[in-house]
Amino acid sequence: MKPRGGDGKATAVFLWLSLFFLLSGLLLYLIFSAPPEPPRRSYPVSSQAGAEVHRAGYSCPNKSKGMTGLTTVAKVIELVGESQIGWEDAVHNAVEEASKTIEGITGVEVVNLTASLDNGEIEEYKVNLKLAFGVREDRA
Fold it and tell me: Dihedral, CA atoms, 57, 109, 95, 46, nearest 10 degrees?
């Protein structure tokens, strides 16, 4: 009479199949799950030049706000602002200077903050930023 416990081969096959399906499911999960969204590195600022500034990302000009002649498309440019006072002042300087030649600024995103040092003291604050503004419909 055979002892009751089953065949060793059947148990090994069962374990290998279980491991195969477990790893297949894990692989499918890793392939089809969405990657996490990277953190935004911007902060709210107010504009001295009259431009509407947003916390993160950009918005397109809206005709209902009285901005006629502008589409719902925004152009984004990169700028570097500088100040001897601080990073927020560097953002204000960049937006103020850009608003002298660019109409319809709708948003700003701070990309990077750096500073120049002299003998361990901050000499100049620098900010890399992206500036968004509306594109005109009536262009030639």
Answer: 80
CATH of 63-136, one of 3.90.1150.10, 1.10.10.10, 2.40.160.20, 3.30.1660.10: 3.30.1660.10
For the segment 36-94, what is each residue's pLDDT rounded down to a tens digit? 666 555 444 444 444 444 444 455 555 445 445 445 678 899 999 999 999 999 999 99
pLDDT of residue 48: 41
Q: Take residue 36 and report the two structure tokens written for it.
A: 């996490």
3: which residues sit within 8 A by CB, 6+ positions away? Answer: none
Hey, which bits of the chain come out as E strands? 70-83, 105-118, 121-136
Structure pTM?
0.50
Asked whether the beta carbons of 110 and 41 are under 8 A apart, the reply is: yes
89 token code pair: 């002042």
